[in-house]
Design goal:
Elements (H helix, E strand, L loop, with lengths): L2 H12 L3 H8 L10 H13 L2 H13 L13 H18 L2
């Protein structure tokens, strides 16, 4: 299929002119370390996941007996993160 036909079909599908659709398509911006291939891989992972697999993935953080999930006030989040960072730094120094 020629590029022109592809653009016409895309324009009809999206409601944008071929020029607008092409312009929008080229504006994808990804976070550092991400690209279109990685995003598509992530989408594929979740689209192919069964309900049981999704549930297991959602529950996994709550199964770990080394960590605890807890609710804290937003205004304390930065202080708690700093405390965790200091704790992890000490662990790295001691090798524990």
């Amino acid at each position: 299929m020629s590029e022109i036909i592809k653009k016409i079909i895309e324009a009809a599908w999206t409601g944008f002119s071929p020029k607008e659709a092409t312009k929008m398509k080229n504006k994808n911006k990804f976070p550092k370390g991400w690209d279109e291939k990685r995003v598509k891989g992530l989408i594929d992972h979740y689209e192919q996941q069964t309900e049981d697999e999704a549930l297991a993935e959602d529950e996994a953080p709550f199964v770990d007996d080394q960590d605890t999930m807890m609710e804290i006030p937003r205004k304390l989040v930065s202080q708690v993160r700093e405390m965790i960072a200091q704790h992890n730094k000490k662990l790295l120094k001691t090798g524990s």
